[in-house]
């Protein structure tokens, strides 16, 4: 990794650690653990899936509201890492605390999951904003994509350990219950996440900032109000955020609801865990490949590729019936999941003023998070109305199509930079 600086490597290693939360808590072990708890409490499959969707919506709404405000304040010298630290600590702590909630308390599980999700997503707002501090614009696509790639690789290690413990428990090879094995996975996630955040705390620093002023909070709200008022003057930024709002909704919903969806199809928890593990392995090289191809074909064209693949995923999901179908679906997602997220992050990072990165990534967060409210709610409501989760997933197609159409209006990198600098 000599091609990358210590700051770049330290920043990327956080993805290596935090991605364990994404796969174990957001996608794999927790949803299965929660679904089992809800089922044992007499909650129907469609209702428990809907409640999970509503919970994700609540968590993302909280972050959507806080993101721009906190981001604007964090643009001041020395504050970015402090805000990052607070949300990081919140996420790690409540991820670990999931292990201490009785398995029959499904509602309490969702509450603690909400707080952990707020911590993880909140930390990611400032982590993403650090991208402009650790690398150059020329290397931004590759660094962002490599971060996602390392995240997929790194997350497989605690995931394998967690799966091994759960499978051994299920087969009575080790003297622990399946419930306890799942709780051990939550603790492993928290420890892994915390361990690989250390290099970021040591080596990553805020290089771009606004000098401290009197009455920081009051001034920050004024700056935020001015940006909201003038955001349309950043034409490229505004159009990109609008496109991002729609297509990332589908991406986030597929990620967060996939395990619950698979459970509703009757796929066993063991098969789901294995499928998700292979998805992580396949996704790693594809995320890095997206970064490299973006240097040849531009990031925008690679975003088109990712969106088109997700449209195919949603259409295919409508006809899902067997475990093999779910395997095919997962592998399609794996080819583009990391790439579309990584290039969205770096494309946006090239558009925004570096000294205001936190503020703008706060808007990036609010557009992404509000989109993530709409998707899970759509899946949840549709699942309850129809009694079939397939219809909810299929309906996401329209979001990808709208996002792609708007993306066609976003200027290419050079023109986009000029457009984003037109500030009133």
From TrEMBL:
The Major facilitator superfamily (MFS) profile domain, residue ranges: 236-424
Topological category with respect to the lipid bilayer: Multi-pass membrane protein
SUPFAM superfamilies xref list: MFS general substrate transporter
InterPro entries: Atg22-like, ATG22/LtaA_families, MFS_dom, MFS_trans_sf
Compartment(s) where it occurs, according to its Swiss-Prot or TrEMBL record: Cell membrane
Pfam name, any one: ATG22
Coiled coil stretches, renumbered: none
Keyword line: Membrane, Transmembrane, Transmembrane helix, Transport
Transmembrane segments: 20-38, 50-71, 83-101, 107-127, 148-168, 180-201, 236-260, 272-290, 302-320, 326-348, 360-379, 391-410
The protein, known as: MFS transporter
Organism from which the protein derives: Bacillus seohaeanensis
């Amino acid at each position: 990794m000599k091609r990358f600086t210590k700051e770049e490597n330290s920043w990327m290693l956080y993805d290596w650690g935090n991605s364990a939360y994404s796969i174990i808590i957001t996608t794999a072990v927790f949803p299965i653990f929660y679904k089992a708890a809800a089922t044992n409490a007499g909650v129907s499959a469609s209702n428990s899936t809907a409640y999970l969707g509503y919970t994700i919506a609540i968590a993302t709404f909280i972050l959507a509201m806080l993101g721009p405000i906190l981001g604007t304040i964090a643009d001041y010298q020395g504050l970015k890492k402090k805000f990052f630290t607070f949300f990081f600590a919140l996420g790690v702590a409540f991820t670990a605390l999931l292990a201490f909630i009785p398995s029959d308390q499904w509602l309490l599980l969702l509450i603690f999951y909400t707080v952990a999700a707020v911590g993880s997503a909140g930390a990611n707002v400032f982590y993403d904003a650090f991208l402009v501090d650790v690398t150059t614009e020329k290397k931004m696509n590759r660094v962002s994509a490599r971060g996602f790639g390392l995240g997929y690789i790194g997350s497989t290690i605690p995931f394998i350990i967690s799966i091994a413990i759960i499978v051994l428990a299920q087969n009575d090879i080790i003297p622990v219950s399946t419930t306890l094995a799942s709780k051990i996975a939550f603790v492993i996630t928290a420890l892994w996440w915390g361990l690989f955040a250390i290099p970021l705390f040591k080596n990553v620093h805020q290089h771009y900032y606004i000098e401290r002023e009197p009455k920081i909070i009051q001034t920050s709200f004024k700056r935020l109000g001015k940006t909201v008022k003038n955001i349309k003057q950043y034409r490229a930024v505004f159009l990109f955020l609008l496109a991002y709002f729609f297509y990332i909704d589908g991406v986030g919903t597929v990620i967060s609801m996939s395990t619950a969806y698979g459970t509703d199809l009757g796929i066993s928890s063991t098969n789901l865990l294995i499928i998700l593990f292979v998805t992580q392995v396949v996704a790693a090289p594809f995320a890095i490949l997206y970064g490299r191809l973006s240097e040849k074909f531009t990031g925008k064209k690679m975003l088109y590729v990712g969106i088109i693949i997700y449209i195919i995923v949603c259409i295919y999901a409508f006809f899902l019936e067997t475990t093999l179908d779910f395997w095919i679906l997962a592998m399609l997602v794996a080819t583009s999941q990391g790439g579309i997220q990584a290039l969205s992050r770096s494309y946006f990072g090239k558009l925004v003023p570096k000294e205001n990165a936190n503020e703008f990534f706060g808007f990036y967060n609010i557009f992404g998070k509000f989109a993530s409210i709409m998707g899970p709610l759509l899946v949840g409501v549709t699942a309850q109305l129809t009694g079939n989760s397939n219809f909810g997933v299929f309906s996401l197609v329209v979001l990808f199509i709208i996002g792609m159409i708007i993306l066609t209006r976003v200027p290419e990198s050079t023109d986009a930079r000029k457009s984003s600098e037109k500030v009133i």
